[in-house]
Amino acid sequence: MRPGARPAKRSTRVGELLREILAAIMLERVADPRLQELTITEVEMSPDLKLAKVYYAVRQGTNPEELMMALDKAMGFIKQEVAREHILRTMPEFYFLPDETMDKAERLESLMRSLNTGKGEES
User: Fold this and answer.
1) CATH assignment of the domain containing 114
2) Which of 7, 41, 52, 68 can bridge 92 by disulfide, Cβ–Cβ 3.0-4.6 Å?
3) What strands, in cross-sheet order, belong to the sheet with 93-98?
């Protein structure tokens, strides 16, 4: 560790490890093809490690209702696979949420382009 650097919080370290495990489960072990296209972007753990917000991204055109039904159906299997990794004493409650970072970035980029084209027309 660098001098003066603070150690990462345990919840952050566990969240990153859980993200890697969930990504591998979705890619390699889940039978549902809708879930194999899921990209786990981030996992935020509560300080007591009992709640996990799992942020995901999917391809354009994926039906969000179908995806949530597939996640609900596979939740037992996903928890079983996470438990096999023996990283936590108790299983956290998973909340899967769409990652809107890319959408926000696209909107911001679009706004920046529109501002730049507006300046070019005034000159």
Assistant:
1) 3.30.300.20
2) 52
3) 39-45, 51-57, 93-98
Per-block average pLDDT, block size 10, for the chain (123 residues)? 61 94 93 88 94 90 87 94 91 92 73 74 50
Tokens of 102: 């890319």
Show the domain range for 98.
Answer: 10-122
Count of CA atoms in the C-beta half-sphere (13 A) of 91? 14
Contacts of 64 (CB under 8 A, 6+ apart): 98
For the chain, the farthest-separated pair of C-alpha atoms sits apart, in whole angstroms, at 64
Output phi, psi for 28, to 5 deg.
Answer: -110, -25
Dihedrals φ, ψ of 89, to 5°? -70, -40
Indicate the pTM of the whole model: 0.76
Tally the domains of the chain. 1
